[in-house]
Design a protein that fits this description.
Layout (H helix, E strand, L loop, with lengths): L14 H12 L19 H10 L11 H15 L3
Enzyme class: lyase
GO biological process, one term: L-glutamate catabolic process
InterPro entries: Glutamate_decarboxylase, PyrdxlP-dep_de-COase, PyrdxlP-dep_Trfase
Amino acid sequence: MGCRRFKIPDGSMPKEAAYQIVNDELMLDGNPRLNLASFVTTWMEPECDKLIMESINKNYVDMDEYPVTTELQAGPPSIFASRN
């Protein structure tokens, strides 16, 4: 069957195969843990990964629907701004 990058295929493929194709492609990117040229965080605690996955389906633009999320995201800039 194969994967066409710029055309929707006529048929379907199992979700596991689609995942594996995308995952294999992404493995060709650089490894962020080996990137010593930046100060980007390249590892997170499992709890951070879990929070991201639990909130990935939220529409953060809809501030009325997600007021707590809106309030939480205002915290870090305030914390950094108050540092000397």
